[in-house]
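Predict both folds.
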Amino acid sequence: MVLFAVALVVLALDRLTKWYVSTHMEIGQSIPVIPHVFHITYIRNPGAAFGLGASQAGLFVVITVVVVVLIIVFARHVGPGQTLLRFALGFELGGALGNLYDRVLGGAVIDFLDFRVWPVFNLADAAIVTGGLLFILYLALTWQRV
């Protein structure tokens, strides 16, 4: 249950922030929050991370659907007490679904978090990274128990 609750919260926050940016800003518009450090910059990314593979949108949809199915199947085998793993998978699932929604319905992912030293990203991307880091932490904490 934790996994799906986390995924739902991530998906809802991702959709809400992307809706707000896409309805209140023009593509390419950038609003400084902390000048030269953090801006809200509205872009649409048809590719994967860093805009790579812009012509492979269909492939990214297929890969994401496979990942979502694998997370759901794997989650069925996660034991009770493995809460950290459930959180990790929830972040991954919510982030994947958030970007999948954009790709399927909009043809490109809406990105807007701009730290000026890193490519522009969104909450779904941040959730995917957070899930990955939580998974690494889970592995580190359970390594000795194997």
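Second protein follows, with its predicted structure tokens after the sequence.
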Amino acid sequence: MENLNLVPPGPKGPFTENWLAEAILVTILCCLPFGVVGIIYAAQVNTKLTAGDTDGAEKARTEAAKWTKIGFWIGIGWIILMCLFYFVLGVSLFGVATRMD
């Protein structure tokens, strides 16, 4: 009987996610400083894993996830604050314009 291995080759375990794509998106769309820190840690995951440093790779993955999430939520908060600012500014300018007529 043949041994049919249907599992695709590739990394196994907790290191399949290095947060690099998410960190890049956070850098571009949300918050540049925290996204860059996330990219730096995410880039270290595969390097440390290849070198055999699984503890270091796990720590880098955890740090990349932390900084990416922080950048995401700060970016979302900033976007919400800017929308509120422009809404209040628009309402106040519209209110002043209608009172002057």
